[in-house]
UniProtKB/TrEMBL annotation:
The gene is phnN. This is ribose 1,5-bisphosphate phosphokinase. GO terms for molecular function: ATP binding; ribose 1,5-bisphosphate phosphokinase activity. It catalyses: alpha-D-ribose 1,5-bisphosphate + ATP = 5-phospho-alpha-D-ribose 1-diphosphate + ADP. Pathway: Metabolic intermediate biosynthesis; 5-phospho-alpha-D-ribose 1-diphosphate biosynthesis; 5-phospho-alpha-D-ribose 1-diphosphate from D-ribose 5-phosphate (route II): step 3/3. GO terms for biological process: 5-phosphoribose 1-diphosphate biosynthetic process. It comes from the Bacteria. Keywords: ATP-binding, Kinase, Nucleotide-binding, Transferase. Residues 34-214 form the Guanylate kinase/L-type calcium channel beta subunit domain. Its EC number is 2.7.4.23. The keyword Thylakoid does not apply.
């Protein structure tokens, strides 16, 4: 697992202890002109929506990077994730029609990534998507190449962020914060970004991971 924390860890590809340098997307070498899905995972409150929004702004003029708009059976929250909303019945119909590349269930809701995201990756693009830790086996079976970006934040910070959202009672917040993430600890090729500190540091690390993937895909495709 690669760990990035703050300005220099992200830009220079240095591990937390500074012991070795690495290209965080150096494994993107074997799939020819096919692209890559950057699957963003992490507990609620770790900052996935915020970092994705900032990265979308940073890559707004780049046609080779797609920020995937999910479909969720929940109304969108102002200031949170910008997603499409469907009723459970409509979601099921769209799913049966094959319009999702991947779907999963979590917290009593249904989530889907559109089939267009898979087409974009197969055409050599880089797609960035907010995913679920529990759905990664399915995601990795569908997309030709996947790199995981796992966001982390200290427990106290997670609890405060969740409380500020006002979606859940305190007991549920405590359960979320204490939930283990063993299913991701065993996965390879995971980039870990610590979002416990200044937002600008985590945002820069996140953007640098996408930029590194962009350079690798360009090198493989022989394009700029």
């Amino acid at each position: 697992m690669y760990r990035l924390s703050g300005r220099y860890g992200a830009r220079d590809g240095v591990s937390l202890n500074g012991s070795r340098r690495m290209n965080v997307v150096s494994e993107v070498t074997e799939a020819g002109s096919r692209g890559l899905l950057l699957a963003v995972i992490g507990p609620s409150g770790s900052g996935k929506d915020t970092l994705i929004r900032l990265a979308r702004e940073a890559f707004s003029g780049d046609a080779k990077v797609l920020f995937v708009r999910r479909t969720v059976t929940r109304e969108a929250d102002r200031g949170a994730e910008d997603h499409d909303t469907l009723t459970p019945a409509d979601f099921g119909e769209v799913e049966r029609n094959g319009e999702f590349a991947v779907t999963w269930d979590a917290h009593g809701l249904r989530y889907g990534l559109p089939s267009g995201a898979l087409s974009f990756v197969n055409a050599g693009g880089i797609a960035v998507a907010n995913c679920s830790r529990r759905a990664m086996a399915t995601v990795m079976a569908v997309f030709p190449q996947v790199r995981l970006i796992r966001l982390h934040a200290d427990a106290e910070i997670l609890a405060r962020r969740l409380a500020n959202r006002g979606r859940e009672p305190l007991e549920e917040i405590r359960a979320r914060v204490s939930r283990t993430v063993e299913e991701t600890e065993a996965l390879e090729k995971v980039v870990l970004i610590d979002n416990s500190g200044p937002l600008e540091d985590a945002a820069e690390a996140f953007i640098d991971v996408i930029a590194a993937a962009r350079r690798d895909i360009d090198r493989l495709c022989g394009s700029s």
